[in-house]
Structures are given as structure tokens and as C-alpha cells.
Predict the 3D structure of the following.
Amino acid sequence: MSQEMSTVLITGSNRGIGLEFVKQYSENDYNVIATCRNPSKADDLNELAETNSNINIIAADITQEESINNLSAELNNQPIDILINNAAYLGPPDPQKFGAIDYEMFTRSFEVNAIGPIRITERLIDNVRSSDTKKIIFLGSAAGSIAQITPPVTLYSYRSSKAALHLAVHNLYHELISENVMVSLINPGLVDTRGFLDLKPEDPIPEELTKMVPETLIRMIQEGKIPMITTYESVTKMMSYIEDLTIETKPLFVNCDGTPMPW
């Protein structure tokens, strides 16, 4: 990796928002450390790395301490200018309904969405401290905003885990501000990572989509009542916000375009 280029580390880089971050940061001449659980199965990421020498793919499971320790050892004190905690777990909607809650899934949601980002940040904090930029980004969610909960009430485990992440990030913000380490919590927006935008109002809903999102919400997306954006749109806006981020930037929790998000 070039010592003259800034370095960004992105978790959950194998698909969706994480993969788009890798694309755009590599195009903007960053050293990109792209992590995911199973690099051998990350076909799109590997294809991207084949044509971009500034992308380094490393295996990392944010729920496993040994995996994160191995990542830290492999980085060997490499300065990280921007750490982007993107990896997340949504889970299917039905086991997240009250009365039918899958508590193993509930636990997994907290391991991935709340504990994992703090685990990897704690392990890599000295890498961030040794950089020139010192920015730590967490992808939050409007679904974890207590002020915005409205019917239909869904996704108990996902919403709860994201709300827990928000509180932990708020703590971290106050913990690191005296060191001039910038911490930000960004809601990427309602981003289409599965092909929802390809659905027309009259189209039947594919079963694979209802396994991920409640049918009522998919219908609202089809009807245009819930606007979705592409990964390109979301990441472009977030990167612009991250570029302009300073230690004085307020508020902590924002939408992808920098507008304030309610807690």
C-alpha cells in the first residue's frame, strides 16, 4: 500500500453499501482495506480488487474476537485515516414479530449490529490515532431512532440492536473528542441493496424479498410512498459528508446528506 495515500478500512465490504464504499474510495485514490467474513465467496469484491491494486481484502468477522485480533496483527500498526463500521445484520422479518421472536436471532443482531462495531473500533483505535485524519464512522439506522417508531411495528431485534449502537457511539464520541478523533453516526437512508427499485406497482413480490422486509413495507415502496435510493446515491452523499467532517461538526447523528436525525 502506498504511504502517500490515505487509508480507509470498511467492514462488510462484500456487497451493498460496503462494496460501493470500496468502489468509490478506490476510485478516489485511497488505500482501501476491505474486510468481510468470507473473502473467498465475495465474488464482486474480488473482481474489483483484480483491477484495482489499491484494494486489500482481509477476512474479518466482527463477532469473533480472535478474527479481529488477527486483523489487527495483519495490519501491523498501519495508520487508518477513516474507519467505516458498515457491517450489519437485518435478518428476516417474521422471527422479529412479538409473539414469535427468535431469541437466537435477537442475540445475533446485537452481536453484529451493536457489539461488533465497538469491538473492532476498540481493537483498531491505535491505528486510527496514528493517522492524519482520525475519523471513525458508524452506519446507524432510522429504524433505531426511538423518536421515529411508528406503526407497523416490526423488526424488534434489528431496531433494538441499532438503538443500542447509537447509544454506544454517543458514548464513544465523548470518549474520544479530547484526542481530536472524530466520531460520526450516519443513517445511510432507505437504500436498495436487493432490487426493490426494479419492482413496478403491478408486479408480484418475489418471495426472497418478503423474507427480508415485511410485505406491507414492500407494497409502500412499490407505490412510491416510501422512497428508496441506490447504493451509489447513498455512498456519494456519505463520502461528501465524511470528507467535510471536522471535530466541531454537529450533530452527531445525521442522515446521509448531513441533515440531523432524531434519536
Summary: Residues 184 and 255 are 11 Å apart (CA to CA).
